[in-house]
Design goal:
30% of the residues are buried. Helix 6 (161-172) packs across helix 7 (180-188) and helix 6 crosses helix 8 (198-212). This protein is α/β, with parallel strands linked by helices. The protein is built from eight helices and twelve strands. A five-stranded parallel β-sheet has the order 2-1-3-4-5, sandwiched between helices. The chain has a four-stranded antiparallel β-sheet with strand order 6-7-8-9, with helices on one face. It has a three-stranded antiparallel β-sheet with strand order 10-12-11. Strand 3 (54-58), helix 3 (66-73) and strand 4 (81-86) form a beta-alpha-beta unit.
């Protein structure tokens, strides 16, 4: 279920006043409520004062940098956070994800991509709004959560728990690109490491087992630089 923008308040934390206003306008035009801050201390004060459903957090903030803000937030709050970094600042993005960020986007960013990331993260952060799904079927692929069973027609797939959970996440979010950082937390129960190839390995094995069972494993796609998607 997609969140209702009018019921969601998003905090933009960006010290560049012009970019801050551009982001506020972009988010408001999409129907969301907004707040804005120009430094890290103001972010913590604003979150304590108002209820927000998501934060767009620049890491290079004055007074208190974004990583420090994130560490302090995570002591008491699970509010979704998208860190905003300079393009090419890979180490900053990795550090942000390790400290509890839910996603990241690099500047300069595509406004459409930013809105899609916001919408996707809000949707994943509101599971209570949607009925809990226990099973699903996609073109003869059947997944049953209660016993982690996957079948193609009458043929059972021999999947490990991790492989099933990876397939389940992609299947329940079919058509959406899920980041490696998100899947690492949801499937592997750990932050994504800088050189961690575990998800690639598990996805490759799931793809092969689906193909062997007569299902088009190539529908499990790797989206370079973004994550994975089930078409």
């Amino acid at each position: 279920m997609n969140p209702n923008p009018a019921s969601c308040r998003i905090l933009i934390a960006e010290d560049d006043t012009e970019l801050n206003q551009q982001m506020v306008t972009l988010i408001r035009d999409a129907g969301y409520q907004t707040g804005s801050c120009l430094d890290g201390e103001a972010v913590l004060e604003e979150v304590a004062r108002e209820s927000y459903q998501l934060i767009l957090l620049d890491l290079m903030l004055p007074k208190l940098d974004g990583l420090s803000v994130l560490r302090l937030l995570r002591k008491s709050s699970e509010i979704p956070v998208i860190v905003v970094t300079a393009r090419g600042a890979e180490e900053e993005r990795i550090t942000g994800l390790r400290h509890g960020a839910d996603d990241y986007i690099a500047k300069p960013f595509n406004p459409v991509e930013l809105l899609l990331r916001v919408e996707a993260l809000l949707r994943r952060a509101q599971p209570a709004l949607a009925p809990k799904r226990e099973s699903l079927e996609i073109d003869q692929l059947n997944l049953r959560l209660s016993d982690l069973q996957a079948t193609v027609g009458e043929r059972k797939l021999d999947l490990t728990a991790i492989q099933f959970n990876l397939l389940w996440e992609l299947a329940t979010n079919r058509g959406e690109v899920l980041s490696k950082a998100y899947l690492s937390r949801e499937v592997l129960n750990r932050p994504l490491g800088a050189y961690d190839r575990s998800l690639d390995m598990h996805l490759s094995r799931v793809r092969r087992k689906l193909s062997q069972a007569g299902w088009r494993g190539e529908r499990l796609q790797t989206v370079r630089g973004k994550g994975y998607c089930l078409k």
